[in-house]
Amino acid sequence: MRAPLRVAILGSTGSIGRSTLEVIRRHPDRFQVLALVTNRSLDGLVEQVTMFRPRRAVVADGAALAARQDLPRANWEGGREALLSVASDPDVDVVVNGLVGAVGLEPTLAALQSGKRLALANKESLVTGGPLVLEAAERGGGELIPIDSEHSAILQCLAGSDRASVARVVLTASGGPFRGWNSNALEGVRPSDALRHPTWEMGAKITIDSATLANKALEVIEAHFLYGIPYDDIEVVVHPQSVVHSFVEFVDGSVMAQMGFPTMELPILYALSHPERVDDARLRTFDPVRSSPLSFEEVDRDLFPLFELGVEAGRRGGTAPAVFNAANEVAVEAFLDERLGFPSISAVVEMVLSEVQTCPVTDVADVLEVDRTARAAGCAAVDRVGSADRESSVRKRRVGA
Ligand SMILES: NC(=O)c1ccc[n+]([C@@H]2O[C@H](COP(=O)([O-])OP(=O)(O)OC[C@H]3O[C@@H](n4cnc5c(N)ncnc54)[C@H](OP(=O)(O)O)[C@@H]3O)[C@@H](O)[C@H]2O)c1
Asked: Domains of the chain, with CATH numbers?
């Protein structure tokens, strides 16, 4: 019998991290937790450490760890260096990158450079540093397997096919909670409305990105880098049931689709076990009759301008996708803090994209530099646009009073 694969989970306290632990808990003969990494959710990490007994527990925010005197010092480490060393730890077989945001790029590069299998949920790694990620895999011999359900679907549809036989891919989007709304109604949207996703349970950032469709633009860029597919051959359709995860159309007109109940545990298990399939009764819940009817619609590009802005940044290439991503991260955080209105997320991103100079991606320093510049420009834009948003909502309240 083979020894279990030793898994490190970056972002273990997040939505992807918790789902990964749930999958591992059901398959102890196949997978073993070697390291867990959080940013600062110490209570959550303590619980996970008690249950899974990893060799290493890392708190990326070293100050948060230092402030806790009650933890056993053995096996606990703090700081970003410790996070990066987990990604390249010689005892780790698979790194699951479930971090949120551009902060995931460097651990992605570290894992691939050290020849590991990288089960990648952190799409921002490919969006911000796509060429660097591919180069790191090539140089270090690492293997990149996506966790995002749409990209896992493409991988599963492609099994055994020559890439040259692919004519195009079609990613599906749930459409988020505001599908079919009109733009006036979006002005009054609060964080609690946007956090109510119709089909998926996810972390706050990706849930807001699903409501604006920025997430789908990030996924188009991710698909472009993962599978070397030109932007003209990547399409998106809205599929509110979230049962079909992607289509691949081949040059002879045949179309493959991968389907399944919307749970991230399935693509996570597949990323850990690829190319094998592991028996998991808990995940076998698909019922074609109950899933019916399945419907598909065009993306409403006027209602969701971030989709077009993001894809356009992908087409521009170089550091433009990193600028889009950084501006969007800053704007989403401001929206969640109620410093910015929902429609203004795209206004801020558009301003930053027109202000910040881009360049080709030659090394990680380029990406980190443009990320910093775009964040600073994003904060300034949030201050300008956010104060106008607040004045307008005060005016509306007065008129309503
Ligand atoms: N959730 C999904 O179903 C889903 C589906 C497809 C793709 N994805 C992608 O997967 C990634 C994670 O999403 P999520 O929904 O799981 O996010 P999440 O629930 O917000 O979790 C993020 C995790 O990353 C940690 N983290 C955040 N900032 C960090 C930093 N600076 N240093 C170290 N750790 C940090 C967080 O730690 P704390 O708990 O301490 O904050 C948490 O453990 C995103 O790229 C998302 O787009 C998610």
From this structure: 5-146 (3.40.50.720), 317-401 (1.10.1740.10)
State whether the beta carbon of 210 lies less than 6 angstroms from ligand 1: no
The closest residue, in CA terms, to atom 45 on ligand 1 is 122
Atom of ligand 1 nearest to the CA of 202: 1
Q: Is the separation of the CB atoms in 210 and 306 below 8 Å?
A: no
Query: What span, in angstroms and rounded, lies between the C-alpha atoms of 308 and 302?
Result: 9
Question: How far is C-alpha 146 from the geometric centre of its chain's CA atoms?
Answer: 10
Question: What token pair was written down for 130?
Answer: 């796509």
Residue 353 beta carbon below 6 angstroms from any ligand 1 atom: no
Query: 317-359, pLDDT tens digit by residue?
Result: 999 999 999 999 999 999 999 999 999 999 999 999 999 999 9
> Ligand 1: does its nearest atom lie under 6 Å from the Cβ of 197?
no
124 lines ligand 1 (CB under 6 A): yes
Residue 114, both tokens: 């050290």
Q: Which amino acid is at 123?
A: K
Task: Return the amino acid letter for 84.
Answer: L
Distance in angstroms (rounded) separating the CA atoms of residues 55 and 36? 9
Helix H or strand E segment including 370: helix 364-400
For residue 386, how many other CB atoms are within 10 A of its CB?
Answer: 21
| Reported pTM | 0.96
Cβ atoms of residues 271 and 146 within 8 Å:
yes
**Structure tokens given for 254:** 């045949």
